[in-house]
Design the sequence.
C-alpha cells in the first residue's frame, strides 16, 4: 500500500467515525480497528488541518435574523460553521477562534 493509499484509507475511517456519533473506542471495537493507530491518525489529521490557513466565507442569505448582538453564530458538529452578520464584532470572533484553537490542541476543555 502506498503512502497516499494508506492516508486515504485512514482518512475514510476517521470520517466514518465522525459521522457515526459514537466514541473512538466504541467505533474501533465495532469495526475491528486498532485503537492506537486510530488515535494516531486522528491526531495527525487534526494537526494537518491546524497547520495552514482556513478560508472563512459567509453566505449572509442563510444568516438568521436573530443572531446575537455580536453578530456571530458558531455551529459545531463534525465540522465548524461560523455565520457572521455584516456588523459582527471582530474582537469576539478573534476570541472565539482562539478558544476553538485551544480546544483542538487540547489546551482547554471545550465541552463540560
Sequence:
Amino acid at each position: 500500500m502506498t503512502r497516499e493509499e494508506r492516508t486515504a484509507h485512514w482518512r475514510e475511517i476517521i470520517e466514518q467515525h465522525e459521522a457515526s456519533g459514537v466514541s473512538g473506542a466504541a467505533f474501533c471495537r465495532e469495526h475491528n480497528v486498532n485503537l492506537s493507530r486510530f488515535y494516531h491518525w486522528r491526531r495527525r489529521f487534526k494537526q494537518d488541518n491546524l497547520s495552514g490557513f482556513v478560508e472563512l466565507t459567509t453566505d449572509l442569505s442563510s444568516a438568521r435574523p436573530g443572531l446575537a448582538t455580536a453578530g456571530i453564530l458558531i455551529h459545531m458538529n463534525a465540522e465548524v460553521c461560523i455565520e457572521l452578520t455584516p456588523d459582527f464584532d471582530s474582537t469576539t470572533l478573534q476570541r472565539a477562534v482562539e478558544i476553538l484553537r485551544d480546544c483542538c490542541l487540547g489546551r482547554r476543555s471545550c465541552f463540560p
